[in-house]
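Suppose you are handed a protein chain with no further information: no name, no annotation, nothing but its sequence. What can you learn? This example shows the usual starting point.
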Amino acid sequence: MRADARRNRDKILEAARDAVAERGTDAPMELIARRAGVGVGTLYRRFPDRGVLLAALAEQYVHELMDALDDAAAAEPDAWAAIRAFVVHSVAKSRGALAAALAGAAAPQGRQALVERLDQLVRQAQADGAMRPDAGTGDVMEVLNVFACHPGVMPEHFLALILDGLGRR
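A reasonable first move is to predict its three-dimensional structure. Written in structure tokens, the prediction is:
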């Protein structure tokens, strides 16, 4: 891909990310193009329809989550601290709005790699005795789902309570 085409694609995805977080998946394509500083024709050449754009946005989002998980694993002293840091990072309001908007989108290809990496940390945290053995990766994913994809369903302070309940300290 040419450098200018790559820049346009990146600008479109950034604009789409903001527009979808603000307005949901029905954000007008014209608004996305305007925010990206490109014409509507350029947007449609890169992303022939809304579904293709949302799939690319969801894939990018999952890769960002994977990077955040890897960063937490590298920065934190143990697996449980990494899981907690990742969850807290992932449910932050700006990311939560995007997650909520993309909740109904098809699962991107990178999702499985994210779940597998999280599962490694969960198993390590359990082996370390820092996480309950009867809780698992699915439980952590459900916490992410509730707090990131459905913000406001539970009070924010419940996140810490639930994470404390998953831990063994």
